[in-house]
Write a structure and sequence with these properties.
The chain is α+β, with helices and mostly antiparallel strands. The chain has 2 domains: about 30 residues; about 200 residues, no CATH class. The protein contains 8 helices and 5 strands; from the N terminus they run αααββββααβααα. The strands form 2 sheets. Strands 1-2-3 form a 3-stranded antiparallel beta sheet, with helices on one face. The protein is globular.
């Protein structure tokens, strides 16, 4: 029946002398990786499978079966263990906030602090402080966690916060307590681990893993799980078994 319908449509096109239709016009999926807009601030975002270093803007949903399989294959590589103790954890153990001098990560040592780097990566319609090409004072940004566009001004800075996809306290409990200061500064400022989001979402997450906190927008959850896995793999950190299962479930 499906082939017959397609044949009828194509016959009508040929008789009528119209331009030929492609597969999307017929409602058919084309093979290969799904296309993503990649736009900033408008909900386009970037498929995390196409953004392994975190330098491209935002976070786009993963929807095709091909990409979901690739996502599950990636998550399966993450090792598991139980959470360690939080004893000794302090935010300052990961360097002062938004340091520009972390080694061997994208966007570092460019004269602009990490927070402003991420705002510029993910935002649009930006205005800068007079005399600066770094300090953002106004912009629009699309929050993938809530699928809302936020108009942000620096006077209300906490309205948009920078989420550590893999929270620093979680890192500490999963092995970062034994790292050097330099490595902890890396994961704290690595754009792969950072996303500009609605401030209340970041606050509600705390140091939760995917088993206990996920973005409220369901269609972004597989992408969130992939980013969590990408950070874990890059820094050779395990996750808890319930967190890994929750990550796999989002891409089922």
């Amino acid at each position: 029946m499906r082939k017959a319908i397609v044949g009828i449509v194509m016959a009508v096109v040929l008789v009528g002398g119209c331009a030929p239709l492609d597969a999307s016009d017929l409602g058919l999926e084309t093979p290969g990786r799904e296309a993503q807009a990649g736009g900033k601030g408008d909900g386009g975002g970037t498929n995390p499978l196409d953004n392994p270093d975190g330098t491209k803007p935002g976070l786009a949903p993963i929807t095709s079966e091909q990409d979901k399989k690739a996502a599950r294959d990636l998550i399966e590589q993450v090792t598991t263990k139980g959470r360690g103790t939080k004893t000794g954890y302090d935010r300052d153990k990961f360097g002062y906030a938004w340091a520009d001098n972390a080694d061997d990560i994208p966007l570092a040592r460019n004269g602009c602090d990490t927070r402003n780097d991420i705002l510029q990566r993910d935002g649009q319609d930006m205005k800068f402080r007079d005399g600066s090409n770094c300090v953002v004072v106004e912009m629009k940004i699309f929050d993938p966690y809530t699928e809302t566009t936020i108009t942000w001004r620096k006077e209300a800075a906490s309205k948009v916060q920078i989420d550590h996809i893999m929270p620093l306290s979680y890192d500490w409990q999963m092995g970062a307590s034994r790292w050097s200061d330099a490595k902890r500064k890396q994961i704290s400022n690595d754009p792969l681990n950072l996303l500009a989001v609605d401030g209340s979402m970041n606050a509600s997450k705390g140091d939760s893993g995917p088993a206990t906190w996920l973005p409220p927008t369901r269609r972004i959850r597989c992408s969130y799980a992939v980013r969590f896995a990408q950070v874990a793999l890059k820094y050779e950190l395990p996750v808890t078994a319930p967190d890994k299962q929750a990550m796999l479930d989002q891409c089922a």
